[in-house]
Amino acid sequence: MNSRVPKGVGVALITPFHNDGSIDFNGLDRLLEHCIKGGVDYFVVNGTTAENPTLSREERYQVLDFVLEKNGSRLPIVFGIGGSNTIAVAQEMADFNVAGISAFLSASPHYNKPTQEGIYQHYKALSEASNLPIILYNVPGRTSSNITAETTLRLATEYKNIVAIKEASGNLDQITELVLGRPDGFKIISGDDNLTFAMLGLGCDGVISVSGQGVPQFFCKVYDQA
After folding, report:
1. pTM exceeding the 0.85 threshold for the entire prediction
2. Measured CA distances, 205 to 35, 43, 85, 187, 189 (Å)
3. Domain that includes residue 58, residue range
4. Which pLDDT belongs to residue 3?
5. 79-134, pLDDT tens digit by residue?
6. Do residues 79 and 89 lie in contact, with contact meaning Cβ atoms separated by under 8 Å?
7. Contact 216/34 with Cβ under 8 angstroms?
8. For residues 120 and 149, what is the distance between their CA atoms, to the nearest angstrom?
9. Which of 2, 48, 79, 220 has the fewest CB atoms within 10 Å of its CB?
């Protein structure tokens, strides 16, 4: 499954809106072409940058269908599915039509501050439900809970379809521990634009960037020269 997870520069796509709150699909089309011409390696659709908590399920899948159609087979696509309701997230993954998608990206549960065992059990359930590789997402500044290196490595070792982590803890000591302890093929992806160069220097495998969709050529150059 690891071979399906893209490397390099991914962009966590925003969702453009019109003033009336409807989705600006023409704007999204222009953004896709701008990123492709800028050299990015893959798209993340329906990540938290896309404001997915404020989108209806129908809107989220409309965006996905649009990106799949416009992208064709040009770049790999990662789709974000997450939340604090483990059963609901697992069911959505189980029911998902995986055609055209390389992997899921799933942030750890927010607000309720699960223990490390709780985080482990959450991702265990997702792993058992998913027909695609899963990229963990550690962003404690948003979720209020850090996924420790120990928990990440436990999941990576025990579940073969948990194949990567988007790391946005900002803790280079923790990231170094991941790099040194990870099983073969497990990817560590920067989730902090400002730490990307440092993380690449530590041996990480790329970035899922927000600002990279504004300046894709810059982030591709950083990756190529790291």
Report:
1. yes
2. 19, 16, 30, 6, 5
3. 2-225
4. 54
5. 999 999 999 999 999 999 999 999 999 999 999 999 999 999 999 999 999 999 99
6. no
7. yes
8. 12
9. 2
Angle (CA) 133-67-137 rounded to 5° is: 35
Q: Where are the alpha helices (DSSP H) in 41-168?
A: 57-71, 86-95, 116-129, 140-143, 149-158
Q: Which of 207, 153, 209 is nearest to 184 (CA)?
A: 153
Q: Fill in the amino acid letter for 218.
A: F
Token pair belonging to 166: 């988007």
Query: How many structural domains compose the chain?
Result: 1
Distance CA 105, CA 113 (A): 19
Could you give the CA distance from residue 41 to residue 57 in angstroms, rounded to a whole number?
Answer: 27
Residue 222 and residue 204: Cα distance in Å, rounded? 13
Indicate the SS3 state at residue 140.
helix
Rounded CA gap, 189 and 133, in Å?
15
What value, to the nearest 5°, has the Cα angle with vertex 46 and ends 38 and 18? 80
Alpha-carbon span 145 to 115, nearest angstrom: 8
CA nearest neighbour of 191 among 67, 123, 105, 127:
105
**Residue type (1 letter), 64:** L
Q: Say which residue the tokens 């059963």 belong to.
A: 87
Catalytic residues: 137, 166
Q: What is the CATH number of the domain that holds 81?
A: 3.20.20.70
